[in-house]
Amino acid sequence: MSWGTELWDQFDNLEKHTQWGIDVLEKYIKFVKERTEIELSYAKQLRNLSKKYQPKKNSKEEEEYRYTSTRAFLATLNEMNDYAGQHEVISENMTSLIIGELTRYVQELKQERKSHFHDGRKAQQHIETCWKQLEASKRRFERDCKEADRAQQYFEKMDADINVTKADVEKARQQAQLRHQMAEDSKAEYSSTLQKFNSEQHDHYYTHIPNIFQKIQEMEERRIVRIGESMKTFADVDRQVIPIIGKCLDEITKAAESVDHKNDSQMVIEAFKSGFEPPGDVDFEDFTQPMKRTVSESSLSNSRGDGKYEPKFGGKSKGKLWPFIKKNKIIETLLGTKSPKQQKEPLSHRFNEFMTSKPKIHCFRSLKRGQTQSLYFHKELMKRTLGTPTCAIEAREYVLSLKLGAGPEDFSNLPPEQRRKKLQQKVDELNKDIQKEMDQRDALTKMKDVYIKNPQMGDAASVDHRLSELEQNIEKLRLEVQKFEGWLADVEGRLPARTEQARRQSGLYEAQNTSAVNSCAQDRESPDGSYTEEQSQETEMKVPATDFDDEFDDEEPLPTIGTCKALYTFEGQNEGTISVAEGEMLYVIEEDKGDGWTRIRRNEDEEGYVPTSYVEVYLDKNAKDS
């Protein structure tokens, strides 16, 4: 099967076919080029997608990636980045192995095709020239024959005419012979030209054209083979990255399998556990029995009734249901308890006061009389509502910490468990920094030894300054570690025992950060959901004893205005408070002024304040009327 023998007369069609083959090759190159552009665009979009959802450095999002589910998501993003890289590899390989190679091959193919068809046209032109020569020789031979025949006829006519002279007859005879000779010469030339043409034509159709067409056929077959190889390369380029893409997908699957819901749940506990106890049960209030209204922290001026003692069953003040206080009550508590007669101020005004006011330490006379809310009451009341202090300076620090994300160096604005974790994290970071500095110091020490042994390599004294700086840095970091370890030991000493799992439950009532926790008394939950006071291990704001004694000496004993029954045991460890036992009966000498404290007396020498929610108050009728 050869184009030279089978298609000897299809020169023009072969020319069109080979041009179509080159067009197909160029079309395939264009297809691969667009595929590479798609791969690059896809890879770019994948990288942008991965980058878009990557956690920002030094941001809150970075802390969220400690859970197994978010770590799996982060691993998926990283693998998608590698996945995008493989598509870039596909684009690069297709560009170099297919587009570049085929583009060069197309140029070579065009040149080769042009050369072959140029030779074909040249052979055609040669055979056409031979054919024209043959035709010219043939026409000349035909013309000479006709002229020789006419000259012969003219001679015979002149020879038969008796009136023609002998000279004319001889002339006609000579002319006829000349024409016959010319005809014979034309015949010989025609014969020679014909033989030559036949030889050229045979060579043309059996040698030259078959050779040229064979070369064109080989060229076309090479083109077909080349485009087939390119298609195979097209598939191989994809196939080469499939194992890596499969590995990326395997890593994503592995990351998905690493998601541990139990571990994430435990991490949520560790992240938000405060270390405080939950409140106790709320007692049943039996309204079927006649009762007197109990003084609570929400009553600023209670009406006075008769002073008879009437027992109550499970009576409880309204203030002890603080988790269920309405939103406006919480806001009022945040802004400071106001009397109903006072005009309400906007929320923004109160926050401005928090930001600009200076802390005030009230004298104990005002504390006794209930004229001003006590320092620790402000803090405790806020803890029981929003988990934040209400002292001016503490509230200001709290608002600033919310706005700026700042806090004290010892993390005292956090609940105990969270503070312990932050301190432990800080200690670990400082230890890492110390190790890094020590590694640098060791490296410089080795370098100094090398310089001492080989002075030509450098000056040993040039590293002394840096070594001294590293030593100072290490010493500073160690002091920092000691400081934070001291705070950590202090926190761990005050945390509940590790085995008491029930006491470690957190987050019900102190979900928000509180500032300056160590400036006021630590609180603990009582069985009814209220609180008792424990002596703080941190610095407390105290009033000098001399002022305290003088003020009490100046005051006359207050008259009794009623009686009360202690619902719970209260350990009065702060100045101005008194300890009571559950069920104990005492005298009321000053009712709750709205600050949540009631002043009571056991005997002439023992009196002080107790939380209103801890006692059931029965005011005398005369006291109520007055």
Automatic annotation (TrEMBL):
Location in the cell: Cell membrane; Cytoplasm, Cell cortex; Cytoplasm, Cytoskeleton
Membrane spanning residue stretches: none
Keywords associated with the record: Cell membrane, Coiled coil, Cytoplasm, Cytoskeleton, Endocytosis, Lipid-binding, Membrane, SH3 domain
One record GO biological process: signal transduction
Membrane keyword on record: yes
Superkingdom assignment: Eukaryota
Biased composition (Polar residues): 511-521
Residues covered by the SH3 domain: 559-620
Family from the record: Belongs to the FNBP1 family.
Protein name: Formin binding protein 1
Organism the protein comes from: Gallus gallus (Chicken)
